[in-house]
Amino acid sequence: MRDSMRSNAxxxxxxxxxxxxxxxxxxxxxxxxGRGAASLRELADSIADPNDRTERVELELHxxxxxxxxxxxxxxxxxxxxxxxxSEGTAAADVVARTVExxxxxxxxxxxxxxxxxxxx
Length: 121
Fold this sequence. Notes:
- This is DUF7344 domain-containing protein.
- There is one protein chain.
- The protein has helices at 2-20, 23-35, 40-47, 54-71, 90-106, 114-120, and strands at 38-39, 76-78, 83-85.
- The protein has 121 residues and is mainly alpha-helical.
- The chain has one domain (2-108): Arc Repressor Mutant, subunit A, CATH 1.10.10.
- Strands 1-3-2 form a 3-stranded antiparallel beta sheet.
- The protein is globular, with a radius of gyration of 15 Å.
- Mean pLDDT is 82; it is low at 117-121.
């Protein structure tokens, strides 16, 4: 019984870390924590980089990032209404994401993440 509980907790932790490996998803978590519920357009506007087109960010969020965050329990996303709300896990995920980013700033010689390598290539 204990091994199955440990295994389940481990897989949930893996899902959270995998989810937070992408900067765009960390940005979503931070935005939700700071502002609360939002429409897909509002969220895309708030996290888009100056060089991004909001429509492209919306598509990325809708098809890729928000479903993954919802599956990991880090946000609540209604794809029909295109609304996003914080979940019980949003605040904790934001703390984890900020901690990981601070560790990265403290350890600049660390290996880049998969998403960092993709941007470098």
